[in-house]
Write a structure and sequence with these properties.
There is one protein chain. The protein has 68 residues and is an all-alpha fold. The chain has one domain: Orthogonal Bundle (434 Repressor (Amino-terminal Domain)). It is 72% helix and 0% strand. The two termini are 14 Å apart.
Amino acid sequence: MAGIRQRVAQNIRKTRNDIGISQEELADRCGLHRTYIGSVERCERNITIENLEKIADALGASVQELVE
């Protein structure tokens, strides 16, 4: 299970960096706390489907893109 969590974390970070926004900006866009985004990107937290959808929307990506 850590494999998919790591893949999602890497995809969130890569997509965020590709569009040139900070963790704080991403957090503001999706209504989550900056430390939550950081902990997801470091694989320290399990992400809920609901929050994954919020993050995907804020990044202009699909959930599928972040999971694959």
